[in-house]
Amino acid sequence: AKEMGRNNFQFFSEDMNHSILEHLALEKELKEAIQRNQFTLVFQPKVSLFDYSTTGVETLIRWEHPEKGLITPDHFIPVAEETGQIIDIGNWVLEQACRQISSLLREGILPPTAKVAVNLSAKQFTDPNLVQHIRTVLEITKIPPQCLELEITESTLMEDVETAIAIMQEIKSTGVAIAIDDFGTGYSSLSYIKRFPIDVLKVDRSFVMDIPDDKNDMAITAAVIAMAHKLSMNVVAEGVETREQLQFLRQNNCDEGQGYLFSRPLSLGQLHRFLIENKAR
Ligand code: C2E
Ligand code: CA
Ligand code: CA
Ligand code: CA
């Protein structure tokens, strides 16, 4: 039994070493990525389902790794979240997004009603310096607060509901809007949803994906849109890829859509062209 125990331990330990080493390597690489400016931003348009005008963009981070090429956030945001590096990365994203979009707003290529959405991770959301950082960024980039929207996932908000409400109210006091991201995937109780000061509800892509084949997803999507409207929230459908999905969303009065049907995430230059072409139409 002793032998077995030792073997088991060794096996377990090797396995752990492997993941710890990988984790440490990534942590070190992330540190360098910040210092060496390897992060870039792309912007995915959100469009009105009423007239297809561009209502805003969601900011999405990319990592231009010198050897591995372009890395999507799913591969490093969770590690950055664990190591705490997400605070620096997230602050950088917020400031850069506002800087880059502020020129489009000034040139009138983006209307003053447009919103730049930035994703906030759970660690950032509870960072005591968050609201001060938001205020500073608004000041230095001169972007009007009503042009900024923060996307917070449902699960982040449910970790500690009372604290979440207080932080959200503080954010709202800056004039910045709040969107609840990935709605339907967490475990939020509807009794909390009405207590959160939420401006926008984003229906998760997993519900939109199987429209029109999955009748249950269609029922849930329609019900979520109706509920959000009763609570005076705007509804954005994520991951709209097909005409059928678009038609269903329009029939159910969904306000906005985001997805490959309208546009993939774009570089700032591409976004510039997208907006000008869209305007001409
Ligand atoms: P998310 O916030 O739900 O962002 C939407 C994701 O769906 C993006 O993936 C986007 O490229 C993708 N997407 C958009 N339209 C479609 C579509 O029609 N079909 C499909 N299949 N996918 C679509 P991305 O850029 O890989 O980002 C993944 C996740 O990483 C994001 O999910 C978000 O949770 C996180 N993330 C991205 N940027 C940041 C950031 O700056 N800060 C933080 N904290 N998280 C970020
Ligand atoms: Ca998001
Ligand atoms: Ca989302
Ligand atoms: Ca999602």
UniProtKB/TrEMBL annotation:
The keyword Membrane applies. This is cyclic-guanylate-specific phosphodiesterase. Signal peptide: none annotated. One of its GO terms (cellular component) is membrane. One of its GO terms (molecular function) is cyclic-guanylate-specific phosphodiesterase activity. One of its GO terms (biological process) is cellular response to nitric oxide. Residues 23-279 form the EAL domain. It comes from Thalassolituus oleivorans MIL-1. The keyword Flavoprotein does not apply. Keywords: c-di-GMP, Membrane, Transmembrane, Transmembrane helix. The chain holds residues 483 to 763 of 771 of the full protein.
